[in-house]
Input
Amino acid sequence: MIAASAADLGSMLREARKAKKMSQTELAAMVGVSRQWVISAEKGAPTARVDLMLDALRCVDLLVDVVRDDTGDALHTVFGGGGG
Output
């Protein structure tokens, strides 16, 4: 799976949590955050702390792998334009 935005990560978190039949409250307890934080993270809140998001993803058996995007598409996604 490729995530190009906070919303993508949030969707992946939600799908994996549901696949594990885990409630938002259970995930929140595992990560040490509020249920509201989980709700926001699953909606793709761009202000979610990275360390907590990584913890949440690990709790649903997901890992993040960062790779170089040599196609230049990342700049197009981030800046919504020609990347230059």
